[in-house]
Amino acid sequence: MTMDKTRVKCYSVADYEKQAELKITDTAALGYFNGGTEGTETLRDNLAAFSRYKLRPRHMRDISTINTKQRVLGCDIDFPVVVAPFAFAKMAHPDGEYAVARACAGMDTAFTLSSWTSKSIDDVTKESSTGVKWLQLYLVKDRRVIVNVVRKAERHGFKAILVTIDLKIPSNRLTDKRNQFTMGNSELLRSPNASIDDTDQFHLLSLSWDDISWLKSITKLQVAVKGVMTREDAIEAVQHGVDGIVVSNHGGRALDCVEASIDALSEIVEAVKHSGVDILMDSGIRKGTDVIKALALGAKAVMVGRPIVWGLAVDGENGVKSVLEILKNELRISMGLCGCQSLSDINQTVIKKSTSSRL
Ligand SMILES: Cc1cc2nc3c(=O)[nH]c(=O)nc-3n(C[C@H](O)[C@H](O)[C@H](O)COP(=O)(O)O)c2cc1C
Fold it and tell me: Among 27, 138, 283, 351, which lies 20 to 30 A Cα-Cα from 336?
């Protein structure tokens, strides 16, 4: 048997990140996937912030079975790590969203299709007919477009809609500007009367919480808002009937100089703790210990973006599966070593905020 000496086995998400940087040879594509906005303060803090939280293990507890199963946005998943929406997956691997959706189905977790998908929603469903699928939506001005997309999602068995609320106007991505990277069109949100380049059609400037109530009124699918970073917005979201909130700063790709998502999580959990809405969190999750920290601070599940891009770039569907397997396994180990048999054992007693962030 001949071994591919160029293929290095990856044991962690960090390994995948390194391999993906070698694999994605187009500088503009790599800059788009890995970059953030302006001074990338938030991008960097999303990662650094996790080291400000320390775990508090409890020993001598029965951990002969460890159960990572979760129910979130009305869907049962095998472990609380779901795939965040990301645009133009085809730039990382020709199979793009097909590969990511199949990997999620194989790992029994949820896949979120981006509004800026590089494959059509019909084809993604055809190529990956099983598995939990959610749809990320930008609420464009033309409501006929939204109704059409929502009906399609319903027909194709999607279970939830995640409305992204943190990018009403394009953010200032300097790497993309320097590389002259330009976004293509969103086929999904194409209006019958206007192209997506028509800023009047796409602009979200007048979007308000009432649009969330309207969306809730036209569909029975679960509706979550993605991009909440303050208790005030979390309360508004609940008042407008959402089923879920994703605490997220878009992986440091929207407004720069906002706090790390993990730091914003507690205030949001506290603000809406009696509402029954599901809280998810993303931005900076790279390890199982990051997942357990987010759950200890009150998230029901986390979403991952760039780790999935890296797995996809390195080895398509298998790479994505492997990244998800690594995170699941690391979560199980962290749970076991913290003395947690199930996700309900992961609570505030498992974590403490450290005064030192030294590694
Ligand atoms: C390349 C890329 C494209 C993205 N595209 C979208 C998108 O189309 N819609 C959206 O709501 N979020 C998008 N995001 C944000 C992710 O959904 C998620 O919030 C973020 O990646 C989480 O941070 P992480 O990459 O550190 O895991 C994108 C992120 C990346 C890295």
Answer: 283
φ/ψ of 164, rounded to 5, equals -85, 125
Pocket test for ligand 1, best of 26, 47, 86 (most atoms within 8 A of CB): 86
User: In DSSP terms, which residues pair with 77 in a beta bridge?
Assistant: 70
CA separation for the pair 96, 180 (Å, rounded): 22
Can you give the pLDDT at residue 189? 81
For residues 79 and 226, what is the distance between their CA atoms, to the nearest angstrom? 20
pLDDT value, residue 249: 98
CB distance 251 to 282 below 8 Å: yes
For 313-357, what is each residue's pLDDT tens digit?
Answer: 999 999 999 999 999 999 999 999 999 999 999 999 999 998 765
Distances in whole angstroms, Cα of residue 267 to Cα of each of 297, 349, 356: 10, 17, 21
Q: Rg for the chain (alpha carbons), in Å?
A: 20
Number of domain units in the chain: 1
Looking up residue 260, the CATH number of its domain turns out to be 3.20.20.70
pLDDT < 50 stretches in the chain:
1-2, 194-197, 199
Place of tokens 């953030």: 36
Amino acid letter, residue 43: L
- For residue 107, the CA-to-ligand 1 centroid distance in Å is 20
pLDDT at 223: 98
| Token reading at 294 | 């987010």
Please work out whether the CB of residue 50 comes within 6 Å of at least one atom of ligand 1.
Answer: no
Identify the domain containing residue 138 by its residue range: 13-353
| Dihedral pair phi/psi, residue 247, rounded to 5° | -75, 115
User: Six-digit token pair at 140?
Assistant: 């464009």
Residue 359 within any structural domain of the chain = no
